[in-house]
Amino acid sequence: CSTCLHTPGESDWFDKRFERAIEPLHSSEVPMSSDALILRMLSGVQSKSEMQFTNRKQQQQTEVSPCRTCAVVGNSWFLRDSGLGFRINQHDVVLRMNQAPVQGFETDVGNTTTMRIMYPEAVRIQDPGTQLLVLPMNSSGLQRFMNTLFEDSLIFQIAQFPGGNKKSKDKVLVISLTFLKYIQENWLKKQGQYPSLGLVALFYALHTCDQVSLFGFGTDNLQRWSHYWDDKYWFMNNMHNPKAEYNIILRLWCEGKVVIYK
């Protein structure tokens, strides 16, 4: 493994924005944080949620290898016929977006999935043993998901899959709202209403991995977004600022903080 990506002094631009100590995951270990205050507002859920998210940081630290390589796999059409599947599989952690399919596309996107990041309303249990990384955009979104997490409906859904059981709840992690605020202010400089799912996945990887590789990010020449598994195109809505996000990703690549594969 090469030198850690976060070595201070190598990039003034990066050092001014990167906060090493910030915790990406929602945790009840910091009682005065905004996340803990939100938890206190959740009627009947607090004790369960605290038990669910306590010591996540310590758990991660014990599971992390001395040099963890991470592949953040986007959904772009650029992955089609790319033949990057083998390279993606070589990473310690493979993080995918929402319900992006793997079966039938293994040659281009690999067949390993460690984590899936998705919005609460899109949560589906697809791969037994895969960590779910949930991204609530506000306190109401967090509340709805937390309520659902401890209802029988999600537990029943988990239990229907081979190897799935009630303990699979432990595979669910939640991105901290404080972490979203950090991305929006430190990196996007408040451009756009909130960061995209892909950008959050990228910064989660930057804060938890030693080497980060990006696959299938970006739009085509007409600024259209697409999927590698279909032929549909659409333009980004006003919630995100794709140009600002692209510039950040490009600068991270120029500073040697990420490797980009299209």
From TrEMBL:
<keyword id="KW-0964">Secreted</keyword>
<comment type="similarity">
    <text>Belongs to the glycosyltransferase 29 family.</text>
</comment>
<feature type="disulfide bond">
    <location>
        <begin position="70"/>
        <end position="209"/>
    </location>
</feature>
<keyword id="KW-1133">Transmembrane helix</keyword>
<comment type="pathway">
    <text>Protein modification; protein glycosylation.</text>
</comment>
<dbReference type="GO" id="GO:0003836">
    <property type="term" value="F:beta-galactoside (CMP) alpha-2,3-sialyltransferase activity"/>
</dbReference>
<dbReference type="Pfam" id="PF00777">
    <property type="entry name" value="Glyco_transf_29"/>
</dbReference>
<dbReference type="GO" id="GO:0097503">
    <property type="term" value="P:sialylation"/>
</dbReference>
<protein>
    <recommendedName>
        <fullName>Gal-NAc6S</fullName>
        <ecNumber>2.4.3.2</ecNumber>
        <ecNumber>2.4.3.4</ecNumber>
    </recommendedName>
</protein>
<keyword id="KW-0333">Golgi apparatus</keyword>
<keyword id="KW-0472">Membrane</keyword>
<keyword id="KW-0325">Glycoprotein</keyword>
<dbReference type="InterPro" id="IPR051757">
    <property type="entry name" value="Beta-gal_alpha2-3_sialyltrans"/>
</dbReference>
<keyword id="KW-0808">Transferase</keyword>
<comment type="pathway">
    <text>Glycolipid biosynthesis.</text>
</comment>
<dbReference type="GO" id="GO:0005576">
    <property type="term" value="C:extracellular region"/>
</dbReference>
<dbReference type="InterPro" id="IPR038578">
    <property type="entry name" value="GT29-like_sf"/>
</dbReference>
<keyword id="KW-0812">Transmembrane</keyword>
<keyword id="KW-0328">Glycosyltransferase</keyword>
<dbReference type="InterPro" id="IPR001675">
    <property type="entry name" value="Glyco_trans_29"/>
</dbReference>
<dbReference type="GO" id="GO:0047288">
    <property type="term" value="F:beta-D-galactosyl-(1-&gt;3)-N-acetyl-beta-D-galactosaminide alpha-2,3- sialyltransferase"/>
</dbReference>
<dbReference type="InterPro" id="IPR012163">
    <property type="entry name" value="Sialyl_trans"/>
</dbReference>
<keyword id="KW-0735">Signal-anchor</keyword>
<dbReference type="GO" id="GO:1901137">
    <property type="term" value="P:carbohydrate derivative biosynthetic process"/>
</dbReference>
<dbReference type="GO" id="GO:0032580">
    <property type="term" value="C:Golgi cisterna membrane"/>
</dbReference>
